[in-house]
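Students often ask why we bother encoding 3D structure as a string. The short answer is that it lets us treat folding as translation between two languages. Here is a chain of 237 residues written in the first language.
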Amino acid sequence: MKKIGENVFVNIFANVIITLVIVVIFSVSLSTNVFTTASADGNKAIYKGNEQNKNVSLMFNVYQGTEYIDGILQVLENHKVKATFFVGGIWVEKNNETLKKIADAGHEIGNHGYLHLNHDKISFEKNKQEISLCHDLVLQTTGIEMNLFAPPSGAYSSATLTAADTLGYKTVMWSKDTIDWRDKDSSLIFNRATKNISNGDLVLMHPTKDTLKALDDIITEIMSKGLMLVTVSENLA
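And here it is in the second language, the structure alphabet:
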């Protein structure tokens, strides 16, 4: 009976310790104003910007096509707002002039890898190679040294986070996903981009026909809430 009592005490004590650890971790996460998830070695993926500032970011992952980019740039210019365009390396190779146009308009350029691979399924070295290839192409084309990486399909592993960090990159995810690449419905895209919009939100989009159709209303709605539309880097500051 004494041994059973000791085991019960040990289990209770262990549960208390575990609970305290969870509370401490949760408290620390709340004390930082940027929402992140961390790998075992401490490198982090960022899901939201600084909630103390009334900023929101529009993020465009660009891997295919150019036909709607001019229209998107025009809408952004009409509203005098800046966005962040995460570009794929293989897209950059074929669309140098479009990339320059985006950069010349003052928008932020981020890294979307080279071949649009699932980065959670490739090695540390392959992760580095994918990020580096895109980095070098953008640098050669625009002179821009990127430092934000958006994993294709949002797929990443500890190796991805470590590889990005080794190259001086922050790994950026999103807090709102329009899923515009799949659901070709401008009303649905608008609702996903704006519903419960709040400080620090990172809104993921792609340069699609229906995104362009919804974009003016999305920007108008977000700004009507007293929020500013800024680049991801500004949002994380």
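Translate back mentally: Residues 149 and 171 are 5 Å apart (CA to CA). Keep this in mind for the problem set.
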